[in-house]
Amino acid sequence: MKKSARKICRFTLAVFATALLGGCLYLNRLMPIITGYAAKNLASAVFISGREPAEVEALDLNFSFIRFTSNRVDFEKREVTSRFLWSKSKAVFRDGYGVTLLRGDSKESLLSHPWPLAKDEEGSPALPQGDSTLAARMEPIARALVDERTYNGYPFAFVVLHRGGVVAESYGAGIGPDTRLLSWSMAKSFTNALVGLMSGDGMVDIYAPLDIPEWQQDDRKNITLNDLMQMQSGLEWNENYGNRSDVNLMLHREVDMGSFAQSKPLRFEPGTHWYYSSGSTNIIMRWLRGRFDSDEAFLGYIHDRLYAPLRIHNPYFESDMSGTPVASSYLYATARDFARFGQMYLDDGCVDGKRILPEGWVDYSVTPASDSKDGYGALFWLNRDKSFTDVPEDLFSCVGHDDQRIYIIPSKELVVVVLSCSHLPDNMIDFDRLMKDIIAQLQ
């Protein structure tokens, strides 16, 4: 009997030890994601958006293991260090570049590459005002969304343009017209614009296979910019944000995010299977950067051909350690900036009557990818699949994690911008109801 009890005890201890070891190994593999997410997002919110650290920790970082990180903000050095158990990560702010999560190389090496462009001294210009009667009808919706949060979520900013004029503009506590906020995956649509500009300037052919050396020995050599923008590259990819997935490893562990994504093997024939991949846009941005002789030329092109016509002043398209802007996720701009971007697509690529994007580019961007079931174009989401039941089918949109949205509805001459923090699944903004209520005011 005693021997049996000892055996049970030893077995129980062995099971417990195995489970403990397995848990530690699992956590250890998650550490770069846990501490990296906290350091990067806290640093950007503080040093770019000007938010209070305690407020960011209570809202943006208050989920999963992230909520247990210990975070230190150094305002003098403009950096954030985040710790969890035996691991830590550091993120550093740099003028022009924004925040970069330190991986691989040293902070000193990172700081040895100063921003090569002059800073715009102007602030975010005001948008033209729209119909005052419509604005009065929109005011209760703005109040309900931002102040009362009756549509759920934690909205920071809300802008509605009708026929190019503002009919709603509202901001949460501590946020204003000059506050730069995170795009998350809306940055992908800005990448669409950059490809369009370079295509119109004869610098790229979106249907030509990319000349990526690592791809030339297998069928990846057939992948085009069009395949990548339509999320039909065929490259293996896991976009699950809840685990140690490709997207989490890319954003929180990798020195060169585009290189990591392009190293993936081919799973399907290019152009045949649709599945969402943040890695695709980082491959695109890395390849586009290589079309220029220097970073000064590359960043200057983005400024002169995209930001300047839209009157976007000093945005932060944050880069990885290699210096490439993180096209999948990390653009910081004001709500008015995002509204102007949406209006350009509503106006068929024109700004104030002047053509910016090449003729036909917007039509191309909203043409459904062949395997997307009418739900996705070229780095824009579509409503041709009627995912919005009470909204016109011609709606197309920029969609980002945590409820970032730019909705563009040509038939209603409408652009709607919502910037938010709503990472809790049971508290996401009810965009279907919000858009239905906004459109009802146009009747």
Give a description of the structure.
With 443 residues, the chain is an alpha+beta fold. It folds into two domains: 2-111, no CATH class; 132-440, Beta-lactamase, CATH 3.40.710.10. 37% of the residues lie in helices and 16% in strands. It contains 13 helices and 15 strands. It has helices at 2-47, 53-59, 107-111, 132-147, 187-200, 225-229, 246-253, 257-262, 278-289, 295-310, 335-346, 361-365, 431-440, and strands spanning 70-74, 79-84, 87-94, 98-101, 155-162, 165-171, 181-182, 316-317, 331-333, 350-351, 354-355, 381-382, 396-400, 404-409, 414-420. The strands form four sheets. Strands 6-5-15-14-13-12 form a six-stranded antiparallel β-sheet. It has a four-stranded antiparallel β-sheet with strand order 1-2-3-4. Helix 1 packs across helix 7 (246-253). The longest helix has 46 residues, at 2-47. The protein is globular. The model is unreliable at 17-25 (pLDDT under 50).
Output the strand order for the largest sheet: 6-5-15-14-13-12
Structural class: alpha+beta
Tell me, rounded to a whole number, the average pLDDT: 93
Can you tell me the number of structural domains? 2
CATH superfamily of the largest domain: DD-peptidase/beta-lactamase superfamily
What do we call the CATH topology of the largest domain?
Answer: Beta-lactamase
What portion of residues belong to β-strands?
A: 15-25%
Number of strands: 15
Q: What is the rounded Rg?
A: 23 Å
Sheet with most strands? 6 strands, antiparallel
CATH top level class name of the largest domain = Alpha Beta
Multimeric organization: single chain
Quickly give the CATH architecture of the largest domain: 3-Layer(aba) Sandwich
N-end to C-end Cα span:
83 Å
Number of helices: 13
Query: Which blocks of ≥5 consecutive residues have pLDDT under 50?
Result: 17-25
Q: State the shape.
A: globular
What is the helix/strand order?
Answer: HHEEEEHHEEEHHHHHHEEHEEHEEEEH
Helix percent band: 25-40%
